[in-house]
Every structure is written in structure tokens, then in C-alpha cells.
Amino acid sequence: MRLLYVHYGPQSGVTDAITSRLSACGLEVIQHNPARSFLYQLRQGTRIPNARPAVIRAVLESVRLHGAHWKSYYLHTPYAFDHLSREAARAIRRTAPDLVLQAGALFGPGPYLATPHHLYLDHTRAIAERYPPAPGLPPAVAYQAEWRARERAVYRNATAIFTMSEFVRTSLREDYGVDPARVHVVGAGPNVTPGRPAPLHRPARAPLILFVGRQFVPKGGPELLEAFALVRRGHAGARLAVVSSSCPSPRPPGVEFHGLVSREALARLYAEASAFALPTLREAFGLSLLEAMSFGVPVVSSRIEAIPEIVSDGESGILVSPRDVPALAQALAGLLADPARARLMGAAGRQRVMARFGWERAARRMLAVLRPEQAAGPARGLVTG
Prior knowledge:
With 385 residues, this protein is α/β, with parallel strands linked by helices. 39% of the residues lie in helices and 14% in strands.
């Protein structure tokens, strides 16, 4: 059976993770990214503008609707939605799949609804519209009736909707009127895992706090630097390893900036870490939390969105309010001061990931809907947090 997976990029490794697992389940998976030639840069990571007429108009539309923040919300305009929908429809017509699985709702399937169309969501726009303001971040995306109508139509016409979290399932019900019976919470999985069970009794060494987030400011990096300076008052030898695309300089003593690293290098940092910190301000789904927990590392994160479904507060980690620097520092210092408690939390986190999450588990839960006659094994069911 042929499945077309339409998406808008790597999605922090989600695209390759879920398509490879679905392929392993026996589906012939074809990938298509409608946004690949539509971005405002000719090639990702360069400053060469993409001068196609459709792209020029898309830029103007984004500037008109989003002003100075047009880059952040470039794909969030009705014009972009319609353009990407046409590209998706062409791919469906060209590949003639038996099933379509679409990541997100930045576009629709066009008129080809005769092909069963499924969605895989980590977020909804209604959630993004409610974001509180935060220094250094673009404002919440503005409500647009034209966009909401398009997004609602995609949800209404979908054969089924898969979500990473119960939080998104609730938004679909309350913000868009989607019947919960059509929504299946399948979860997600870590993209970096230990090659063998991570040791819970690590050799004694200077304590290391690890931060992993491509975007430093939205993931709470500035707040973590402030908190770490407080932690160092009681733990002079503590270190903070930052894996991100940027980190301000000069940095507080003990901060090690690694940039973006390979999965192998990241696995070594997880294995060395005493605690993992992700005091994020906005988070569709915290894959890095799953990664840290799979290594048996206790986590400290924000009490927002789907994170309480991932981290059991007080059991596998500690949740604090976003931007609460004193609470963040206290949580991290407490873990460093009590290694036995940290080990127990790490063990609980590892067990939680093994029992509730994983890409194989997510694929099988999807398969129970996509091809129910072939779904089997203990991975079926819902992630309930």
C-alpha cells in the first residue's frame, strides 16, 4: 500500500522518524514537501532571495499581515495556504497514493479528498494565537477568519487526525469543534537514544546541566543563564552545556557553548549530564525531553502546553512556570545537591519513555487506523499523559 507523506520540512527529525517507522511496518512511503521551492530564500541557510513570482507575492502578503515579523509567520497567510494546497494536490495527483498523511495544517489536500487523507499534528494555530507576549519573541500569530476557515475545513474533511498530545486533541475539540472520536493521540519519540541502557550510577564528576534547543531565546536560554549564575553560588564546579544555534557572549563562568552538534556528540552529552534543563517559553512538543529521559537524566522544564504529559512533575522531573528564574535555579540546584533523588527521577523518566512513547509505538498506533487489519502488538492505544 502506497502512502504519500506531505510535510513542510524535517520538523526536528519527525519527518524521517515517522516515515522510516511506517516503511518498516510495510507501507511504501513517498515524501513530498510543498514548501521546498516556496521559501523566501533560494536555499535554506543562505541569504540568496528566491525571486519566483509566487514567492515575491507571498513575502508581500506576509509583510502586509504580520509586519516586522513576516519571516516568523511567512507560511501563515491565506495566500501561502492556498499555494501550498495546490502543490500538495499536484503531488497527490502525480503519485496516486492509496493514503495521504499530512504533517500539520499549513495547507490542505486540494480537491483530492477521494484519497483517504490523515493529519499528524503537534499544534494548532488557535494555540499559537493565545501565546503570551515575551521579550525577544514575535507576538502571538493574529487571528484571521480566512485562515481559521481553511484550517477548520482541513480538520473537518480529514479521514482521521493523529496528534502528539492530549493538549492538541483538546484544542481540536474546543477551538474547532472536531469530534474527539476522530482524533487519535499517538505520541512521538526521541530522536537520540542510548545505544544500550544508560547507566544510572554515573562516575563522580563535576555536575553538568544540559540545554538542547535550536532556538536559544524561545527555549528559555536567557532565563537559564540567569538561573545558572544562581546555581553556581552553591555549586561552584557546576557546568552548563548549551547545544543551540546561538548563545550570547560574554557568558557566565561554567557555560560551554557547543553550537549544533551531531547525534553522536549529543548522545555523549546526554550520557554525561546530571540534569537537563528546558525552561521553554513556547513548545509544541518537547522531543528533547524524551531524549534526556531515555538516558535516565532528570529534567527541569516549563509547565506549559503538552509538557506535563511528558514529564510527571515531582516524579520524573520538575516543572516550573516559564520565566521564573528563582524557581528554575532552585529546581536545578536541588537536583545537583541530592544525587540520589536525581537518580530516582532519571530512572522514573526512562521508564516513562519506555512505557508511553517511541516512534515505533506512534507508527503502530497510526497503523491501527491506516491499516487496521495489520495493526498488532502492545503499542496500540492512546497516550493519556
